[in-house]
Design a protein that fits this description.
The chain is an alpha/beta fold and 343 residues long. 29% of the residues lie in helices and 24% in strands. It has nine helices and 14 strands. The protein has helices at 124-134, 147-158, 183-200, 210-220, 227-237, 264-271, 292-305, 320-323, 329-337, and strands spanning 7-9, 15-17, 21-24, 27-38, 45-55, 58-65, 71-76, 97-102, 140-145, 163-169, 238-240, 246-248, 278-283, 309-314. A ten-stranded mixed sheet has the order 3-4-5-6-8-7-9-10-13-14, sandwiched between helices. Strands 1-2 form a two-stranded antiparallel ribbon. The longest helix is centred in the middle third of the chain and has 18 residues, at 183-200.
Length: 343
Amino acid sequence: MSKDSNHTMTANGFSQTNGFHNQTNNGTTLNCESSEGSSSDGGSEMRVEEILIPVPWGEIAVKATGNPNGHPVLAVHGWMDNAGTFDRLIPLLSNSFYVVAVDLPGHGLSSHLPLGVPYHFMDFIISLRRVTNYFKWTKFSWLGHSMGAALGALYASSFPSYVEHVIMLDLMKPLTDEDGSDYANKISVAVDQFLALEEKIQPIPPVHAYDECINRLMKGTGRTLNLKAAQALMTRGARNLGDDQWAFNRDLRLMGPSILRLSNEQCYVILSKMTSPTMAIKASNGPWFSSKQSCEEVLEIYRKNCTAFHYVEVDGDHFVHLNEPEKIAEQINQFLTDSKLND
């Protein structure tokens, strides 16, 4: 949605842009339209569809761009973000791709999990498997930012025959419990934080003016988002309740740490099963999120086991793909069409 869009509320409290609804494959397609810009290779305007995929607890919302007969690419956002994180990058990609950007459960326009049910990082793999099953994909490429990159590595390790390429944007590995000595205490902290956050959920969420939401979003990322990037995330990240009163869509429970976390050893064993051609793009000013040593060990695992591996460092911060997508678009286009790149 944009700041001036008209919206209706769904039964689960989330907004859907007013438009033509078409039932398809047991899902709902919203707003079939063409994007304002054309693809990077000079093709015609790209077809954009908003699709709601039914799941047992509600719906998973995805934004599909391009020709459904094109090469499928699953685009997965980072923690507390949404599919809008790819809105400025996708128009720069080849029109030979069919890019499906997902709102993970509790994010964007997707349903929240039922009350009492915590969010576990690993469980997102189940949700993403539901998405790929819905599209009946047997071969596809993965484009993931931050947490979405970590999920891509785990998915490609678990279902190696399905994933043709993996592109990891500014996260080299899943977050792990690197030490392990204090894991019992981390469990207790995670449990208590979950229960405390659950108590804070209100039937009517706090509201703010649109500009204040933008400011909060930019402040929450340490001002690493520029204005256009923040506006892109807001299109799915908040809903207008009327009179410039906006509420964030994301589930408050996501702010708590996951009670489950892999050890380094477990992570390394899993990632050693990933064989897909992989490109890791590291922002020069972005955080590593894990120790530099463990990241280097994982990069070595990719070099050893992936049929092709390419490591790229670009100037920028953690949201370089959204702030300055032109810095990485051509490298992604090249990699997805020629996966023989290697260090």
